[in-house]
Amino acid sequence: MQEFSRRNFVRGVAATPLLAAVPGSPAVAAPAPLRKASYPAPDTVALTWLEDTPGANVGSTWGVPWPQGAVPADSPFALTSAEGAAVPVQSWPIGYWPDGSLKWSAHALPANAPLSASYTLSRSAGAPIATAVTVAEKHDTITVGTGVIDVVIGRRGSSLIKSITRGGVRVAQNLELVSLRQTTADDEDERRTSRERLVGNIRRVTVEQRGPVRAVVRIEGDHRRRGRSWLPFIVRLYLYAGAQHVRMVHTFLFDSDGQREFVAGLGVRVGVPMRDETYDRHIRISGDGDGLLREAVKGITGLRRDPGAAVRTAQLAGQKLPDPATWDQRVTTRLPLIPTWGDYTLAQLSSQGYTIRKRTKAGHGWIDVDSGRRAGGFAYVGGVSGGLGLGMRDFWQRYPAQLDIRGADTAEARATIWMWSPEAGPMDTRFYHDGLGQDTYPEQLEGLNITYEDYEPGFGTPYGIARTTELSFFALGATPSSVETAALARTIKNPPQIVAPPAHLAAAGAFGGLFAPVDRSTPDRAKIEDRLDFLFDYYRDQVESRHWYGFWNYGDVMHTPDVDRHVWRYDVGGYAWDNSELSPDLWLWFAYLRSGRADIFRFAEAMTRHTGEVDVYHLGRWAGLGTRHGVQHWADSAKQQRISTAVYRRIFYFLTADERVGDLMHELVDSDRTFLALDPLRKIRTEPYTPDPHALSIGLGTDWSGLAAAWLTEWERRGPKAAIAEKKLLATMRTIGRMPNGFVTGSGLYDLDTGEFAVAAKTVSVSHLSAMFGQVEICAELIALIDMPAFEAAWLQYCRLFNATRAEQAAETGADFGNLILKQGHSRLTAYAASRLGDAALAARAWTEFTGTDGYTDASPWRTVPLTGPEVLNPVDEASWVDTNTTALYGLAAIQNLALLR
Q: Which of 8, 88, 462, 596 has a CB 3.0–4.6 Å from the CB of 429, allowing a cystine?
């Protein structure tokens, strides 16, 4: 049965235009054939920080790849600083080769290790840790000690963290999750709505890691009140040896249709005991850059009477004030008449501005403090005897966010990080139009032909999407200095990340060997490198100038520009948010792997956090599927494997060992069952079709590659379902290899139980999209891992023939492939076949396809045009010839061709 994409109906308006051809490339020498082999592992690996050496050590976790067959799975590891000091390190496997040898190891650096500009990882016994993380489990609590703080975690009730103590002093208590629910969306000027507060309730707690360097505790639950429960959550708490903080990774699942009830606030609230005199209590709130609001609950600066310069200086510095008896008594005797400011609020309601207000207490008026552009998302509340620093990563980028401090003048302050600000109004996830009369499939296909949106009633729902946020809580023994506070705020913004260099990543054979370190050794290579840099820099700058920020949007980019309005088509159906269309995620990650650029890593990281959560369903009938590109991330009715595919998450996971992204990939192991729930070809079938668990119609391109990525990852990680994943992966590979036309067949009938495809007749059904959602990358990894000649032959046939002449296609398969586009993106398939076969003619053809077919060429402008008002709303540098489809495919083709065709 033929595999179709919705886009087959709109080829006339495809977003990848045919551009002017360029002259043929010079002769290309035959590439050395790729071979599967085992290589000796290096004795050491040089490691560096992603960015500069951090100002504060909060610990770090990272992954390192190893060549096949070179490192035993139980190999020990040691870490040495640039200064030659032995540094304790915790190591564990996160990926295996088929022979059981280590493919990826994960490592953790303690927070009390001396900071060094670089480290060396070696395969030998490591240094013992002086003070290890401890985990003590009781019936109702789990206590984790870092050597600096002790954290008591609840097993039931609402307090995720019952207490954090430092040096025997309780710094924080009763940390809980809160949400505000309302039943109307406030559409009218006059609000007639009431809100109710629900509190997170614990259902399950699991200790996932016990040290000695790092402990991880997973907490699951939902928000409840008076019998109503909603917003399931998964929270992980990370504690490092020697750390004074708890890192929290918070995920909530949106289990509402977004039509009749609305999230009016979502936050984390914690109590902070206040022991000091009110004039020794301090508030610190980070603003733009290293900007900092420094205030005391009872301020003694600026008064009509002066307590003395030493007293004022000490309060500003956050130090304990001398006995008031030593002050100017004109101040001391009037201390009760100085207001105490117990409440502070910073609200970041857009990416362009925040405001800070304060008041003495509830029931009294708010006083404006100041405003700024982009707050750092960090605050401190406490006193000279200690307090709590708390912050949220990507604070302004994910507006509307808010920081609240309440009751700092009382025995217990309450601090809340609002991931969704209550001042912003309710979270509006309703579908953006009324259907426009598109009640039947023919009407919906007509809509697709004009707005590129595949609408269907009931499908534009957010039910089941998710969002993950990173937060940190610092138990501090005293009010931090301004320099220390600024350093903590910077740590929240960009958590320190240790990385392995591109040369090692490439030499180890990571991710199919499809990249090589940046090389500008020839003019032609330098030209391509310059263009790759141009494209990334352009998208990085577009995020800023187009303000692609917000709670549900940050991390994604737009699909196609509107050359008339000088905007991206944010309001035109399928041309709006990209939702991983044609693999920008992979372009970014491969760009990082070969360059080591921190800005690319952070861009790709934000995209991974977004596309894996917001664009994919984690609950409900479409769990395991993602949503095609659209005006809203959940708007389109095409719910597909090509968006949820694990291939977009794998690289981030193996580089960081991030458990949440590991969850996302594990969720997909059984996603083959989604083909029972939803027929992706329902609108275009010409014959009746009822899903049969023993004969499910599954495309061999975007569908199978998504399934294969999940199975491969689970098998490599040796996850709980590794056996079934291995079985289905090998069975599908084996039966694809048996098909007379292999991948050219287009689709097959799949058995859920056996994992096999029925061997199809010799048919031809080729789509320009089939291989462009991670299939190239997954097949390269599989062929490097598994010796299955028939499968490799089937894939190489597809690679050779996609861009071949119609006569060549017909001669080998019985029919030509029709009119195909995206030839530049497919040039990397030709290059892969050339490299595997050592075929110089194919290599030369690959470069011709890359430089002179469609996509970007020498004839492209390769520049931006500055625009200002009144032509545009905001000044912007525009490249109207750039779109995300072409960019992603050009980027991947350039990177992989440069690596494959030496």
A: 462
